[in-house]
Every structure is written in C-alpha cells, then in structure tokens.
Amino acid sequence: SELLEFAAQFADIDPRRLQINGNDRIARLLGFGLHLPEAAPVSEKPSRPFSRSIHGPGGEVSGPQPEFVIAGHIFATPSKSGLAPRGLAWLAEVASSTAVPVIAIGGITAENVSGCIQAGASGIAVIGAIAASVDPRQAAQALRTAIDTVWTKTKEQSMTITLNGKPAELEPNTTIHALLVSKELTDRLVVVEINGSIIPRERFPEVL
User: Fold this and answer.
1) Burial of residue 29, with CB atoms counted within 10 A of its CB: 0-12 exposed, 13-18 middle, 19 or more buried
2) Contact yes or no for 127/139 (Cβ under 8 A)
3) CA atoms of 208 and 200, how far apart (whole Å)
C-alpha cells in the first residue's frame, strides 16, 4: 500500500518512462512498466516497458523478452558489500550475447563509465554517483558528458554493411544475431557473409 501511494504521485508522467521494481500488480494498476530481479517469476504478458536484472556469469534471460536488461554489478559498490564485482569483461560478454540493450550498474562513476560503454553497454544506472554527491546536478552532467564523449568516438568507429542489398550502419561489438533481431529477421532465413565467407548459423550469437 505504501508503494502504491508513493508511485501514484508520478501518474502524470509519461508511463513509458516509469517502471515499478518487483511488483507487477502495482505496475498494472498505474500503467507503468515493470522491472524484475533475475530469477523472479513473470507472467507471459508483463507490464511494459519490461526489464530484468542480470547477475549470473552467462547473463541468461528466461521468459518473455525484456526491452532491456540491467547487468551488474560491474565495479565494487557499497550496495553489494562483500560480493566481487563482475567486471568489464563479463559486461562485454553479456552485451555481445544478449539481443536487447544492456544497461550497466554498480559502482559506476564519471571516471569509469567510458569502459562500460566501450564494453557494449547501451547506458548506465547509478545511485551513489549522483545521490551521494554534494552537487547532484554537476555529478549527473559529468556522467552525461563522459557518456556522450565515448559514444561519439564509438560512432566514428562504426562500419557500413550491406543488408538486403542496401547499406546499413553497424555499431562496434554487434553480434550477427543481435543485428538480425534488431531488424526483425530470423536466423534460419538469412545468409551472412564476412569478406566473402559464409558464416554458419550456429555462430551467429558469437560472431561480431
């Protein structure tokens, strides 16, 4: 009841920008999206936008496909005291094997956020980097600037491919499977060539 009362204060905000953490009933009542822990059960039609946390080594997601996943914790953080961080190599593994955008979380600051984006994260989630700052606005701006800087460099490194006979831009570290999902194409109905060599379909999830 306390969560419902609190969340109802934000009902005038675009519901596509809001999620309830862990309570599908309240999410449905208010028309908000839903975020769930990695192992939490979920209905076949969860409130949207729907997302899940990923903490395991392989980053597996079962059930309905989320719009995005939150992966962590990447760096050491007081909220996960005593638990070893997953690190950037794990983040890169998740980003390259997951067909939806990956949001990195855990110990992220303006100083280390560029590594998260370079590892394939589509964005970040923070608490302490802003909430614990003496100047939250400046802290948020520093994060925004750092992200924009690395995104600009990443975009400059993108490559042009031929997709259905037409040129298309491909971001770095994009797997074949992730590309096909983003274009709503089915693996078994396409042929992929890299420098003239046909790539076996079973390798689509791993080949960049």
Assistant:
1) middle
2) no
3) 13
Query: Rounded to an integer, what distance in angstroms lies between the CA atom of residue 69 and that of residue 124?
Result: 11
Token code pair at residue 185: 């194409």
Tens of pLDDT, residues 15-40:
888 999 999 999 999 999 999 998 88
Structure tokens at 51: 């997302």
pLDDT at 196 over 80: no
Q: Please calculate the CA angle 142-118-172 and round it to the nearest 5 degrees.
A: 135
Residues 6+ apart with CB under 8 A from 41: 63
Q: 117: helix, coil or strand? A: helix
CB 73 within 8 A of CB 54: no
